[in-house]
Amino acid sequence: MTSEGWGTPPVEPISQHYIVCGGNALAHRLTLELVEHYEVPVVVLVPDRTRDHAPQIEQLDGVAAVVEYAGVTEEALRAVRVETARGIALVEGRDQENIHAALSAQGHNPDIRIVLRMFNQRLGENIERLLRNGTALSGSATAAPAFAAAALSRPNSVQVGDRFLHIAYDDDIDSHRICVVADRIDRQDLGRTRLLPEQEGDSASFVRLAREFGDDGPIRSGAAARRAAGAEGAAGTPGSGDGAGDRAGDGDTGREAAREPAAESAEVVEAAEVVESAEVVESVESAEVAADRAADADADSAAREVAGAAAEGRGGVAALQTLPSEPPVRIAWWRRLRWRLLDTLRFFTSARLRLVLITALAAVLLAFGLLWYLNRDFGWSLYVSLLDLAGAAQPDQPADAAAGTGTGGTWQRIAQVVITFCGITFAPVATAIMVEVLASGRRGQPRNPGAGTRDHVIVIGLGNVGTRVVAQLHGLGVPVVGLERDPQARGISAVRALGVPVVVDDGPLAEQLRRARLKRSRAVVAVSGDDATNLEAALEARAVRPDVRVVVRLFDDNFAHHVYATLDNAASRSTSYLSAPAFAAALMGREVLGTLSVFRHVLLIAELRAEVGSGLIGLNRHDLEDPGGVRVLAVRLARSPQVYHWNYADRTRGLEPGDRVVVAATRSGLARLNTVPGNTGGGRAAAEQQSDR
What we know:
- By secondary structure, the protein is α/β, with parallel strands linked by helices.
- The protein is 45% helix and 17% strand.
- The strands form 4 sheets. The chain has a 6-stranded parallel sheet, with helices on both faces. The protein has a 6-stranded parallel sheet with strand order 14-13-12-15-16-17, with helices on both faces.
- The longest helix is centred in the middle third of the chain and has 34 residues, at 410-443.
- Residues 1-11, 201-207, 215-297, 309-313 and 679-693 have low confidence and may be disordered.
């Protein structure tokens, strides 16, 4: 077998498999997602088995085969048996190469699911129209918002309907929270963090009420339940009045059997009130109004979850919150104006020349003020000053002075002379500035950061991710400076088109950071493709400015843990870790609305559509939710698809064809939903009956 053949040939012809084309970090993460969380057979097509992440991919358990070909050619596609594959992901190479490979794969297998990585998103949207069953995604566009948000120390958000979902931590959690998404957060040991922990939900009060009455007990009205609870409270111990505090501490877990008598009584009363309220609502209001009220109660439950987590001392807590709009980056207008004025001085490289120009400008202003004082006419004074500044002044003649028809005095003549001589100074400098601007534009050279660059973000590495991060920050109105060692990097021209200054130099990193005005910056974002280079940039930045915000792109988890444990005011993100779940879900035909970071963990916000044969028909909220895996955020009913029912209260209603459900899920949780077997029953019971058969 030649080097362009099977790395580990399967024992028998493979079919119904998934193909990953690429040997980079994204291909590595995507392959790991497919074999670990979706448990599907994967064949990987790499350009070189000995380079990049190909050796690590070959060591992954569950990979059916690794094939080595220089490109995704017709021969390579036949070698990986594309005609029998269920899906193919093209995550390496240029946009044109991926488009050609996608069309070739569709020619071999018209029904194959195609996911291709495209940097040009507009082109990707057009290519999707040419593919029968394809999706174009941008890994850099998926990850860039997380890097930009981390640089600004603000929450990254995902838009769902008219709301923006983001992660809030500890004291930043407010009344707009939806649910707790992580607890036991410890910066020194991020492995303790639990995503979507099992918490007390909005039905806990009903469960406690059922336990109180028993399976065969009588059903009492709300008033009777309150009287019974009051009797128990009167018979309790004198110290039972502290039960409310105990309940606040237990509110997050809902699993402790030992409770104070007064706490149990208060909980029964609370549950009875909920039941009585539900009975009244059922008789006078519609079911949707009742659901909205129950959703409000669920928000209170989320508050108890946060308080309970803090009371138990389980470490930091993170919650999912909503905002009516994405929070803007507020920069005062006067600061923007000051930056603009100072930045114009970037053209003057000599401090002596800068001093001369400032002195000349001050002299012009004083002379103008003198003219205005002598003539008491602002318009005429401005007119004469501008003419003198341009060298178009008409001097007084001796005969005019003798006849009294001159400009009106010695001081006015002195002022005009001063303005004229200052104009002689300004004219060549303005000409030089215009020539420099035009020459730099024609040469295609990016401009350097000027003296007025303040409170900016330095982005190191102008590859795909770096270019997206610069565009994201520039769109928010934040000053940005790019830093790149390779003068041929594709992102330099894109950043230059935005008018963003760039430092292009292959010299010492400390000198490059100095030219990028590190001491005046607000954050440093290192997003090159090499972990060691990014870590070096972070340490160099901290050596110059210990308090600067640092965001580092790291693939290796051990590196990332050390960054969080040793550096304050620092964050770590992985492009492949953020984007691979979206690529895997798209390969399975699911839509991921966005990803949210909880330190090095990823939370996926996805919208699932219940279709005939999808396996979601008949499942209810109990069936969908899974502690540590899935939390239902909202439901869009088929009869009203524009309305998002947040924290949908009817937990027993099964999904019908056309319904959509928005979930927050871990990678494994979303994979479980993607692999739910098709059923026509009513929820989990029906699914279990089918599995028993």
